[in-house]
């Protein structure tokens, strides 16, 4: 087990290096000049050149990459072109809302979707099954921001139950905190509940038709024991896979949702940095998201070996 984990960790190093290389050169080769954004429309050519020198943009692109990579190895993500603040400090100040929203979304999605998928498989062809499938289709079809605006209109503007926008940290009180994250979590979890429930249903139905299930029944085991001991355990691999994909896909969903609900998280920071062409911030955020994605894949691979020990060999 430990050797397997070590091998998987080692393979992440070239992946991270490749991500860093692609992100750096894509940003540098994109049209536009960040120095012009900092200088403003009325800056002279001399002022613009001085700003480019202070940002290090006057050096050849490969020299810029080597300097940035050397700083990255030492744990220095750089300094924002616009604010002059450390990228690490900017991420640290914005990461809490994003982590809370993502953790709550995944928890709600798993707690709701997995039982729904199991019940739909258990009652295959019934009204429960049809309801779950209809919700899955609806959840896939409607974009997150549309669901967000609909909930804002009815729940916040019409009923006045929850705030329209903004974020309250846990230190502001439990009730204000829960009110501020309820709508974003509902919006994000809709598509993941639909996805996980659908895959759970399909996986359980497929496993329950296997030969070893018929053998367990022939031995006289009760149906609920066959379902719990043999069906769910063998259906877990696709479910774990789709949960891992859902966690990684939250990176894209949180960018849109934080913009809709005006949340001061990493998603909004990405949008602000991209619009301002703030290279160090964009690079630091993409590296963070890439590292998170790799760690999630590693955790999923480890969980595979727990449910099916043959995988580690």
Description:
The structure is a single chain. With 313 residues, the protein is mainly alpha-helical. It folds into 2 domains: 2-73, no CATH class; 94-312, MetI-like fold (Orthogonal Bundle), CATH 1.10.3720.10. The chain has 12 helices and no strands. The chain has helices spanning 2-29, 34-39, 45-55, 61-73, 87-122, 127-141, 144-158, 174-207, 211-218, 223-260, 266-275, 279-307. The relative contact order is 0.14. The mean pLDDT is 79.
Count of domains: 2
Number of helices: 12
So what's the overall shape? globular
Following the backbone from N to C, one meets helices and strands in this order, namely HHHHHHHHHHHH
The overall pLDDT average reads 79
Strand content: under 5%
- CATH-defined architecture of the largest domain: Orthogonal Bundle
Can you tell me the residue ranges where pLDDT is under 50 for at least 5 consecutive residues? none
Largest β sheet strand count, sense and barrel closure: none
| Number of strand elements | 0
CATH class of the largest domain: Mainly Alpha
User: What is the H level of CATH, i.e. the homologous superfamily of the largest domain?
Assistant: MetI-like
* Measured distance between first and last alpha carbons: 9 Å
Helix content: over 70%
Q: Which value, in Å, is the CA radius of gyration?
A: 24 Å
How would you summarize what this structure contains?
The protein is built from twelve helices and no strands. By secondary structure, it is mostly helical.
Q: What layout of secondary structure does this protein have?
A:
Layout: H1 2-29, H2 34-39, H3 45-55, H4 61-73, H5 87-122, H6 127-141, H7 144-158, H8 174-207, H9 211-218, H10 223-260, H11 266-275, H12 279-307
């Amino acid at each position: 087990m430990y050797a397997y984990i070590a091998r998987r960790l080692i393979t992440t190093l070239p992946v991270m290096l490749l991500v860093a290389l692609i992100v750096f050169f894509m940003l540098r080769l994109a049209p536009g000049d960040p120095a012009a954004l900092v200088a403003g429309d009325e800056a002279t050519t001399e002022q613009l050149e001085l700003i480019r020198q202070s940002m290090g943009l006057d050096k050849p692109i490969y020299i810029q990459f080597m300097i940035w990579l050397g700083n990255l190895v030492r744990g220095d993500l750089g300094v924002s072109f616009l604010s002059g603040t450390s990228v690490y400090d900017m991420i640290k100040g914005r990461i809490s809302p994003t982590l809370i929203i993502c953790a709550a979304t995944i928890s709600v999605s798993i707690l709701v979707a997995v039982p729904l998928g199991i019940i739909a498989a258990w009652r295959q062809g019934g009204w429960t099954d049809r309801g779950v499938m209809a919700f899955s289709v609806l959840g896939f079809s409607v974009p997150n921001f549309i669901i967000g605006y609909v909930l804002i209109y009815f729940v916040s503007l019409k009923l006045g139950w929850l705030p329209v926008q903004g974020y309250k940290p846990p230190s502001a009180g439990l009730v204000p905190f829960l009110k501020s994250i309820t709508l974003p979590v509902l919006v994000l979890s809709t598509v993941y509940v639909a996805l996980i429930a659908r895959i759970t249903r399909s996986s359980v139905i497929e496993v329950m038709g296997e030969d070893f299930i018929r053998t367990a029944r022939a031995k006289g085991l009760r149906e609920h024991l066959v379902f719990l001991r043999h069906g769910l355990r063998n259906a877990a691999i696709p479910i774990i896979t789709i949960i891992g994909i859902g966690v990684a896909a939250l990176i894209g969903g949180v960018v849109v949702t934080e913009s809709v609900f005006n949340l001061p998280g990493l998603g909004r920071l990405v949008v602000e940095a991209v619009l301002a062409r703030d290279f160090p911030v964009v690079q630091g955020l993409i590296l963070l998201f890439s590292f998170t994605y790799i760690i999630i894949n590693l955790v999923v691979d480890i969980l595979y070996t727990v449910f099916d020990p043959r995988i580690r060999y």
